[in-house]
Amino acid sequence: MASKKPYSFSASVNHMVDRAFKVLDIDPGVANDIKACSAVLQVKFPVNIKGKIEVFTGWRATHSTHRLPSKGGIRYAPIVDQDEVEALAALMTYKCAIVDVPFGGSKGGLLIDPRNYTRDELQLITRRFTRELVRKGFLSPATNVPAPDVGTGEREMAWIMDTYKHLHPEDIDYQGCVTGKPVHHGGIRGRTEATGRGVVYALREFFRHPADMKSAGLSGGLEDKRIVIQGLGNVGYHAAKLLQEEDKALIIAIIERDGALVNDAGFSIEHVRQYMNEHDGCIKGFPDAVYSENGNKALEMTCDILIPAAMESVITADNAEKIKTRLICEAANGPVTFEADEILNKRGITILPDAYANAGGVTVSYFEWIRNLSHIRFGRMERRYDEIRGRHVISAIESLTGREVPDWLEAEIVRGADELDLVRSGLDDTMRLAYQQISEAKNSNKKIRDFRTAAYVLAVSKISRSYQVIGVY
Ligand code: GLU
Question: How far does residue 333's CA lie from ligand 1's centre (Å)?
Fold first, then answer.
């Protein structure tokens, strides 16, 4: 197996989805249509960097348009190509279907190492890339809405929105042309942490299902579970921090660009992150931990849960036999290749697949887009009203019982939900419901042996139904 040429990223995704088509016995023509990337744009554009013209290459792939807008991040990375962008766009299609976010799938990439450019240069490059996307019909609130991904964040999203606004001053919904914006520019509270928090909500729901835990060889709750995490970027950091601080799990190893840190007693994620901030993003030298240069070796450590939260194709046919965990929770997109997935399934290692586990980001992007179209912050109308109702409940309880409600309880009952409360509640509900549907699909059909196939079965049935209803087939 290891000697065979590995599948490309998009072929790997397609092979995984094929398992679902087989279970559902879907017509091969329909299957090919669902898998096909509907449009892909490649642009090359010049930007004057320090007096020299540099030509940049970028892509935006629209995998599906059965729902609009098509949705997905834009990544800035030194390794990105059309195949990768198409694979990631396909994952977005399935992801949105799994969590019932009414969007098609899209993804963009710019071939660049952002660390080599200043803030002002990145702004010039981003604005120019945005103009290309807008002019060629690959960016608007109604048709195609980017978001942050590897190498981009709310700063880039603000530049994208501002460029679109200048090109389309008549568009009253211009803020909805991109999600993941800063809160004071139409962003939503809780978007930055959303993907990581969604990963944690997915794991918590898994641990509420005793039969699923048992078949993974796990028991109890998340407390004291030994976790290895790869990548302490936006997704990995928030996931690991919540797992450590709220669920009392033990993060025993952290893998980063410059190596791995191991500490059997568990890390304080906040301390590691602080250290990285002070040391140019590096973990080497962090006190009270064993450091090793070969980070990927730590993927093979014995642990209860392995969370790859960095890039694609980190678990391949070459190391899948050596993975020693019970559960892999895919916080990154495509961390396990098709070949590795087959090996891990045979070895009985449970995988919560990317298209479900990291769907928290696009879920909260959906909330942000709705906020932008409705031009009002969630909770603005009802918060004080809820507070007044809470006070009435307190008065009723006190007058009926003749006793005073303790202050802490009164504060809880009286408090109206703000935007962050609502976003987290919507995210939690979304991740729980999707898990329940996936678990139910897996456990009720003997032909489905793993969570990934179950998730794809759900996605593909929803997508093919939607095509059928509008008469495509
Ligand atoms: N880039 C994220 C992902 O891969 C978020 C996409 C979005 O919010 O549109 O899911």
Answer: 10
